[in-house]
Design goal:
Elements lengths: L3 H10 L22 E2 L18 E3 L3 E7 L2 E12 L7 E11 L5 E9 L5 E2 L5 E5 L10 H9 L7 E5 L5 E3 L10 E6 L2 E6 L5 E6 L4 E6 L18 E3 L2 E3 L1 E6 L12 E6 L5 E6 L3 E8 L2 E8 L2 E8 L4 E7 L3 E6 L5 E6 L2 E6 L5 E6 L10 E2 L5 E6 L2 E7 L1
Antiparallel strand pairs: 1-30, 2-30, 3-4, 4-5, 5-6, 7-8, 8-9, 9-10, 11-12, 12-13, 13-14, 15-16, 17-18, 18-19, 20-21, 21-22, 22-23, 24-25, 25-26, 26-27, 28-29, 29-30
Length: 391
């Protein structure tokens, strides 16, 4: 059974992020990132005010990701809905907008209807994949029975939005009635994982062309596996190569309760290479092309373990407080962490940790996001969006 404290950390952590580390150095030459500058800085609690930090606040509701250096993809309330099966429960639908930081102008996509969950933008910032909210008839009604018998009850409508044209198309996912995880590989290709279909994964184009299909060689469940993160999957014509990371549930690995095992999976051979076996409770991890970053909750201590793109360990940092990993720059130089409600920047070259914002983030936050070159970070706090800039 999952430790209540650890489970609480993770639940809040899908939402929040944080700090204090010592570890290996990671060699990287990028001198222009040595100083962190934020516009209109308000000093973190219990820290002296310094000219090194400033904050730029934007009067927009919720930021999702960067579209360009000057534009942000935002989520906007579209309408309030009441759950027919739980009258006391209300939820919101949302539409998407592109907000220009310099001008304050927005481009709205009000024909998009989504919740605030799984919305992902392609690497070239041209497409967004999202899942439309599922309308659920009243349980036991004739409509509910009809949808249940037809298989429509749990079907999900997955859409692709073209940000350049505003065109919305159906994503031809194979199992519309199954939970799935979608991850962009490049500008028009996705990695799709179906945990309820014998751990099946597919490499697919936005037009429905399937390049590669595979299955995980696992015993039991892949509890938090959601191998949504790829390292270097490439598609050249119809040839698929590279690898991605999978986390297999500790509850089913060698009878080690609450422990997890991380693998690199070769998409061509389906070979699985173990890179880390957790010593505590671990389901918070991040992967990009610079490597794999894993948080392991061991008693009252949290460890951040870093691996390069070949699966070779190149860093380890220890924390004495609740820590959540939010995002890592593409070059692997910096990480955004949340710790006890404070936003921190960890220099992965030196181990230096800098608190840049103190104060609990709202509970429906989309985690902080670095821009393409790791010089700016957007994050949601209270009723506004802030931008941290590194110069």
């Amino acid at each position: 059974m999952i430790n209540k404290k650890a489970a609480g950390i993770i639940i809040v952590g899908a939402i929040l992020c944080t700090s204090i580390g010592v570890g290996y150095n990671k060699i990287s030459a990028n001198a222009n990132k040595d100083n962190i500058l934020l516009l209109n800085y308000s000093a973190a609690k219990n820290q002296p005010k310094t000219d090194s930090f400033k904050i730029n606040s934007l009067s927009i509701d919720q930021a999702l990701d960067w579209v360009s250096d000057n534009e942000i993809l935002t989520l906007n309330k579209k309408g309030e809905q009441q759950d027919i099966n739980s009258p006391k429960f209300k939820y919101y639908n949302y539409y998407l907008s592109i907000y220009n930081i310099n001008t304050g102008n927005t481009r709205d996509f009000k024909n998009v209807t989504s919740d605030w969950g799984d919305i992902k933008i392609s690497p070239d910032k041209k497409y967004v994949i999202y899942v439309e909210p599922k309308y659920m008839p009243k349980v036991g009604s004739d409509e509910w029975k009809k949808d249940l018998n037809s298989g429509k009850l749990f079907s999900r409508s997955v859409k692709i939005l073209n940000l350049a044209t505003g065109e919305i198309t159906d994503f031809k996912t194979e199992y519309k009635d199954q939970q799935a995880n979608y991850s962009w590989i490049d500008k028009d290709k996705l990695f799709v994982y179906y945990p309820n279909e014998k751990n099946k994964w597919i490499v697919e184009n936005v037009d429905g062309t399937i390049y590669k299909t595979g299955y995980f060689k696992t015993s039991g469940s892949t509890y938090s596996a959601w191998p949504a993160y790829n390292l270097n999957i490439k598609v050249l014509f119809n040839d698929v190569s590279g690898n991605f990371v999978m986390c297999q549930s500790g509850s089913y690995v060698n009878n080690a309760t609450n422990k997890s095992t991380y693998y690199y999976v070769n998409v061509k051979t389906n070979e699985m290479k173990e890179i880390y076996r957790s010593k505590g409770f671990s389901i918070n991890y991040f992967v990009n092309r610079s490597g794999t970053y894993i948080l392991d909750y061991i008693g009252n201590e949290t460890k951040l373990i870093c691996f390069d793109s070949n699966g070779v360990k190149n860093g380890e940092y220890s924390y004495k407080t609740n820590t959540i990993l939010c995002d890592v720059t593409r070059d692997g130089d910096r990480a955004a962490l949340m710790q006890d409600g404070a936003l921190n920047i960890l220099d992965l070259k030196t181990g230096k940790l800098t608190k840049v914002y103190d104060g609990m983030f709202r509970n429906n936050i989309i985690t902080p996001k670095w821009n393409s070159d790791g010089t700016a970070l957007i994050f949601n706090v209270k009723d506004k969006v802030d931008i941290l800039r590194i110069q």
